[in-house]
Amino acid sequence: MRIATIIVFFIFFLAKNSFAQTDTTAFPPLAIAEWRQHLPWQRSVYVTQSTDKVWFATEWAIVEIDKSDRSPRFLTRTDGLSDVGMNLIRYNNATKSLLVGYSNSNLDIYKPEDGSVINLPFIKKNVNIVGDKKLYSVAFEGKFAYLACGFGLLKLNMERAEVVYTVFTDVPVYATAVFQNQIYIGTEEGVYRLPDDDINPADFSRWQMLGAADGFPAGQAAGAMAIWQNQLFVGIKNKLYSFDATTLTEVSASGDRDVFYLTTEGPGLLIGWKRGFDGYIDYREPSGVQNTIHWACDASKPFYGIEDGTLKFWIADDSDQFRYYDRTTDQCERFTFNSPYNHKSSEIAIGSGGAVYVTTPGPNSGLGASFNPDGLYILKDGQWNRFNSASNPELGDATKDMWKVAPHPDGEKFYIGSFVGGVIEATAPGTAAKRFNKNNSILQSAGASGSDITAIAGLAFDKDKNLWISNYSAPSSPVAVLKADGQLRNFSSSPQNRLLQVVVDQNGYKWFVVGFQGGVMVYDSGADIDNPADDRYRVINTANSELPSNTVNCLAVDLDGDIWVGTQQGVVSFECGTNAFDEKNCTGRRRIVNVDGFNGYLLETEDVRTIAIDGANRKWFGTSNGVFVESPDGLTQVANYTNTNSPLFDNNITDIAINGKTGEVWIGTEKGLISLRAQATDGPRVNSPMAYAYPNPVRPDYQGPIAIYGLARDANVKITDISGQLVYEGKALGGQAVWDGRDYKGKRAASGVYLIYATSSTNFESPDAIITKVVILN
Predict the structure, then answer these.
(1) pTM to 2 decimal places
(2) How far is Cα of residue 409 from the mean position of the Cα atoms in its chain?
(3) Whole-angstrom distance, CA of residue 251 vs CA of residue 256
(4) Strand locations in 602-684, DSSP E?
(5) Which of 199, 197, 235 is closest to 216 using CA atoms?
(6) Residues 58-75: pLDDT tens digits?
(7) Most distant CA pair in the chain, distance
């Protein structure tokens, strides 16, 4: 098949725009189908080292730091780790590998040399282990790792990734060590030991308890152990002891803090003392001199520390920032990396300029204030920043429970809904912000008139740039609006006052989620927003619609103006247009789909928590079982992402938001924030004259898809070689088409220039067409 040859002049005219993508942010652009994690690199819970590397474990992933130049590398699920939520990492010199322990009892063996990961889920998945499965500490003896766990002791061959034996102790094992051919464990009851060559170590009755007759404190928990200078050092409550296999000797004590850990990864002995969340670190030099070393770094909540042999200390601390202390110069360095403050998210919104706004959890599950101080995280120009009481102390309690956000359609300004302190109008962290609450505006307190809480539970702009507000539990006027002219007013005739999320449809109707199994409310403010006489309300529930449940979680407006409602039992759509108040004819629709040969309602067994609409009008449903992507009509499943078939950290989805310009899909989970570059972008009615392909040129080592940007929504696309031979034909997804770089026979297209034709029709008389090109190099 041939297409008429294009005038050479036209090709060169377009060529200057064919490579017109630049990116000045700190994050490189994602390729289509590529994922990017956004985890908190702010604080750490554990640290370990090899000769040339240091590894910090954060709550959710690992930071690898090169000792020579301090360059970081980030290791997450997208890099091959099997899980998130770490509580321990230790480097084993004998096998040149890192043992990674997760808070859910999962284990990985990570090989830094080649980046390989071996997952060992046997503790996590063992249904016969009842109760405490936590990994408390680990000791190495050559290639063997001895794991002190809540259920007992486990011996692991690190080289073969195999369990040698398991000892079930009926009491938690907090520490372990191998000393003079004896295995020692520290438990809640005290210290036990067994010869290393015992024929049946799994039989706990064969283990000897070291009690008062052996000089050990009777019945006192032993929480830490380490071998140093041919002595076994044991932490028992607030005292540090040394043991030569015969005699126990008290070495030091703390009046009010217990020994939390002992480590000898360097030539000295580090002793961690802790009480509650407060603690400090002592360093015992090879000479025996003991000094407190952490105060210079203000590490008031140390989890773990190591010394690298040159009096340089790396400290994992629950306070913000990683810590590095050089004792020879008495200098401390604190450092963090560009990331959100923590992993939690409640609502995600994308600004018109591409900024990403992420709120943190607000009220508890019973819709009671939790006074969460974490604030709002903002990714702008490649940098994460935090908006909270520290950045804007003038806002007081308004920075608590900030769980809703709405960027202004025009750009810089954004609005935050606090479940405690009303609505905040701001432009950036640290700049003067404005607050609207019950004390300075018509917004009302939640519940009783004497309540100090101004609870906001939903924000949404309409096409006229009026901000609609759910003033949750306001006694008389739960619907409010901040008009484009700056006036704030509310409406007193609402039949419901426990209003949550609000969205605005193409007719200007406001749709609200009603809390406490109240269904949905739709509100029409009429032709005159200031005249209550033309207002209309309608409450939609299981009694008058197809809603399968009155527990409604979320709402979304698709590109056709239809309302999609997510419930505890699937999805309902309302395709009523201007007839939304017609109770007989606007009852909603439950789509019947075929799943594994059986018909059923769309996602009827899923708790649908959030809905987002992409540029191709596809529906992204976030549930408690991952993400489901459905076709525009909801009848065909496009994709299903879970934590087993994708880099998702967790299947419990908190929110989804889509950047229509780039197609990047932002997904909040209970265990962290992640984004995916999807195939669909927003598409205008006509093709852009600046349409271009990316990457361009396509180099020999690139095997991914080629994206064509700037197309009209659902444009028809044809790609030919320079002679006019057709190699691809398809349709855009929204404003973006994707080509795999192969011809009709499935072979990679030959080197050369390829012409891209895109056509759409605004009407029959005026078809719209553009031409651009892409260069392939083999």
Answers:
(1) 0.87
(2) 26
(3) 16
(4) 608-613, 619-623, 626-630, 637-641, 653-658, 664-669, 672-677
(5) 235
(6) 888 899 999 988 899 999
(7) 101
